[in-house]
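User: My collaborator sent over this chain with a note saying "see what the structure looks like." That's all I know about it. Can you take a look?
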Amino acid sequence: MIDKNSGLIIPEHIGIIMDGNGRWAKKRGLPRPIGHKFGAQNFRKITRYISKTGVKILTLYAFSTENWKRPLEEVSALMSIFRQYLIDSLTDFREDDIKIVYIGDRSGFDPKLRELIDESEDNAKNRQGMLLNIAMNYGSRAELLRSVKMIAQDVRDNKLDPENITLNDIESHLYTAGLPDPDLIIRTGGEFRLSNFLLYQSAYTEFYSTETLWPDFDEKAFEKAIIEYNQRNRRFGGV
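Assistant: Without extra context I'll predict from the sequence alone. Here is the result:
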């Protein structure tokens, strides 16, 4: 197991684009929603494992603002899985001491789902272990637009001089305000794009893509990503 005693640098903040559920199901002659069900099961397993490696923050891309364009049957299945997870989350990860926060535009969900989100976060707010950010109805461009609008409102209210706007003003209005930028973003499923995930925050993030589909992404696949991360030379624009 990779941990602080393994001699490897453990990223403080890791983001994962959980891709490939539909293709995983298709390869097995199953409906795409079945793939999401197995993906949700793997989400619990790999999150628990990562929490024991020394990672302090894990941000998982679960449902994007663009995912609403998918077939109604698939979206309905995803919302059903999300609803059940929120119910389970009242006890889920309690023994692991994992704190759960949801990032994204909650207004897109029905009122009962928003209530469950609030209850889930409140139930885990005093936990001291790894912070788990679950990105639901999240899109980085929408996040940046939201930040700009909030800054514009501060200017309108004479709380902020336009000449004094800084990067900190932008960052303080992001969903990840107060958190360090991700050190590593992992994408399963073999694609090489961020797909509107943490665009601002990932300016100097290392990117790792694996052909492994999300339901099959296990401890060994995660460890390969960490070993690859340790072979990178992070210069942050320097020499």
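A starting point for your reply to your collaborator: The chain has a mean pLDDT of 94.
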